[in-house]
Structures are given as structure tokens and as C-alpha cells.
């Protein structure tokens, strides 16, 4: 077996998926990472930037930049909180709501392309295996002090 076969294959899959996703998202005027933020607001409109950062497990500064770009593009807007002027609430605009609906079909299209020729059992197995990989990575991240892999 070739050394680092998992890393190589996973990297190739991620690159191909990113390329396809980026092309489809560009048609909607969006960039990778932005759909997740829109979907969060689609489920819970009017939450704070801090809440968005917590839900997406992303640094607040990154969320601030994403919100500014999406606001500039007309996908969302901000309002000051009625009770606490220090807090901004983020809402989907009509354009953002339409984009969420369009994104659902884009995601389904990409999934269909990725999983073509897979049986339902294979899809279920693949999902379970990827969840295991993610769990392992999350567990490692929580137990390490940031000192690296110690190879």
C-alpha cells in the first residue's frame, strides 16, 4: 500500500469537491463557507454574530468578515438589538431567503454527482466512516495541547 494513501485520496476528493462547489456557488454570487451562515439564519433569523460564530464553531472575526461581505451583496442585513445596543442581530434579506432555497437544489445536485453509482448501503457506510474520521479528529484536537502531532 502506498504511504499516505488516505491523505492523498482525501485531499484529491476535497479538491475536486471544492472546485465543483465553488463553481456552482459562484452562479449564486456566493463563496464557500457563506452558505452555512445563510442556512443558520434560515433556521434562526435575527441571532447575534456571537451566536452565529458559536453555531458554526468559527472565530468571531471570521464571521464578521463573512457578514460584511454578505451584507454588501444584499443577502442579509443587521439591526441593533432592541434591548442591548452593543449587540447586532443578523437577518436574511429576501435575496438571502431565495438563495437558501436555490442552495438546497445546488447541494442536492453536488451530492448526486459525488454519490453517483453508489448504492444506498455504500452511502450509509461512507457516511459512518467519515463520521468516525471526524470523531477521531475532534477527540485528538480536544486531548492535545496544540503542541503538534509529535511524530
UniProtKB/TrEMBL annotation:
<dbReference type="InterPro" id="IPR000835">
    <property type="entry name" value="HTH_MarR-typ"/>
</dbReference>
<dbReference type="InterPro" id="IPR036390">
    <property type="entry name" value="WH_DNA-bd_sf"/>
</dbReference>
<keyword id="KW-0805">Transcription regulation</keyword>
<dbReference type="GO" id="GO:0003700">
    <property type="term" value="F:DNA-binding transcription factor activity"/>
</dbReference>
<keyword id="KW-0238">DNA-binding</keyword>
<keyword id="KW-0804">Transcription</keyword>
<protein>
    <recommendedName>
        <fullName>HTH marR-type domain-containing protein</fullName>
    </recommendedName>
</protein>
<dbReference type="GO" id="GO:0003677">
    <property type="term" value="F:DNA binding"/>
</dbReference>
<dbReference type="InterPro" id="IPR036388">
    <property type="entry name" value="WH-like_DNA-bd_sf"/>
</dbReference>
<feature type="domain" description="HTH marR-type">
    <location>
        <begin position="3"/>
        <end position="135"/>
    </location>
</feature>
<dbReference type="Pfam" id="PF01047">
    <property type="entry name" value="MarR"/>
</dbReference>
Amino acid at each position: 500500500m502506498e504511504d499516505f494513501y488516505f491523505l492523498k485520496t482525501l485531499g484529491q476528493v476535497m479538491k475536486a469537491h471544492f472546485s465543483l462547489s465553488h463553481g456552482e456557488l459562484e452562479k449564486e454570487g456566493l463563496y464557500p463557507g457563506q452558505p452555512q451562515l445563510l442556512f443558520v439564519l434560515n433556521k434562526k433569523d435575527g441571532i447575534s454574530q456571537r451566536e452565529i460564530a458559536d453555531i458554526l464553531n468559527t472565530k468571531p472575526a471570521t464571521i464578521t468578515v463573512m457578514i460584511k461581505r454578505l451584507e454588501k451583496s444584499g443577502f442579509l442585513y443587521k439591526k441593533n438589538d432592541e434591548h442591548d445596543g452593543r449587540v447586532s442581530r443578523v437577518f436574511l434579506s429576501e435575496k438571502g431567503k431565495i438563495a437558501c432555497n436555490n442552495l438546497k437544489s445546488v447541494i442536492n445536485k453536488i451530492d448526486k454527482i459525488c454519490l453517483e453509482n453508489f448504492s444506498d448501503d455504500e452511502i450509509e457506510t461512507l457516511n459512518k466512516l467519515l463520521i468516525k474520521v471526524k470523531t477521531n479528529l475532534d477527540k485528538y484536537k480536544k486531548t492535545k495541547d496544540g503542541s503538534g502531532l509529535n511524530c
